[in-house]
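Justification of resources, computational component.

The compute hours requested in this renewal are based largely on the per-chain cost of generating structure records like the one below. Each record pairs the submitted sequence with a full structure-token output. That output is archived, and it is also reused by downstream analysis tasks.
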Amino acid sequence: MDNSRPGALWQGADTRDQTHKHQPRNCSMSESAPRESLIEFPCQFPIKVIGRAGQGLEGLVLEIVARHASEIDAANLSVRPSRGGKWIAVTAVIEARSQSQLDAIYQELSAHELVVWAL
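The structure output for this chain reads:
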């Protein structure tokens, strides 16, 4: 069994495309938006990060997201452990202002060694 990826809770996830597949809350899709984004900004946008439990992922997510969205605080985070407790999913809800802001957040999160997936 590969210990580098989450188990049963996330087995159905398609790891080839790690982009957010669901429409963010309070965001609407627009056909007149620039080609790089179909989301109308500003909007409330959930960012989910998955990694090993007990490694300080919650603090890391808060730190990275705060560099790009200064209004974030611990109240905007939710943490859900996997059934076996080996993995956690941290969701941060931000007021997204642009596609470039979201791209920068996902790029920095994905580059960190504690982050297994950023969705």
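The first helix runs from residue 57 to 68. The beta strands are 43-52, 77-81, 87-96, 117-118.
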